[in-house]
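Long-time lurker. I teach an intro course on protein structure, and each term I like to show students one example going from raw sequence to a predicted 3D structure in token notation. This year I'd like something fresh instead of my usual example. Would anyone be willing to generate the tokens for the chain below so I can use it in lecture? Attribution to the forum is fine with me.
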Amino acid sequence: MNTLRDLLDAEIPLVAVSFGDDDSERLAHEAKAAGVDVAELRIDRYSRTDTDHVLQQVRTFKSLPILATLRSTHEGGEWSGTEEERLDLFRAVAPEVQAVDIELSSRGILADVISAAHENDTLAIVSYHNFAFTPGTEELETVIAEAKNAGADVVKVSTMVTSDSDVKRLASLLLKAGADTRLIVIAMGPIGAVSRVFFPALGSPITYSFIGSSSAPGQLDFSETFRLLRTFYPDFDQRKTVES
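-- Reply from a regular --
Happy to contribute to a lecture. Here you go:
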């Protein structure tokens, strides 16, 4: 049973927090106690990426739904190995996690990563990141369509915004998304901070936060995100009340 799929099906906002491989046992315990919904393990930022080390880190967070990310340098990540090595790690972690995140631009391994995920009842998040600007609506809709056609269970679009019109353009993607499209949309940058709290109201199922150091421009820290979601989303507040 994929616990993350069940949480997504409930259509209540989820908060994901990114973690590296520093002091994992303590952070895994604190994340669970604090109410983190999803542990995004940024394997591309690990001090070591041999399979044994990676799997040990993954299993440390087994009390939470895990999203495994090995972000390419082309989209803001720190992966320094080959694509073949990255694919091997995706295959190794797929049976141990609830979701993997692979960039649409990683064409050489995209299909194989999605296949490895689906073979293990693991969700495939196909992502697009633009740290420079927010493209036009037509280009963004093409990204979403291509990700879905590739086999994405969830499509993630994250772009840098410099104006309110950029934020509105991203919001329109959620408003126009069909019932068959599970879409995470994030507006990066200070102006986009509003998206971290209010895009879930438009259908974006996961918002990303941080404990300690931010991993993306415009992120709100976990305690603030948690407080605001409990304020604006009664179902989220109720779920956290039950969990506590």
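Some talking points for your students: The chain has a mean pLDDT of 96. The longest strand covers residues 123-130.
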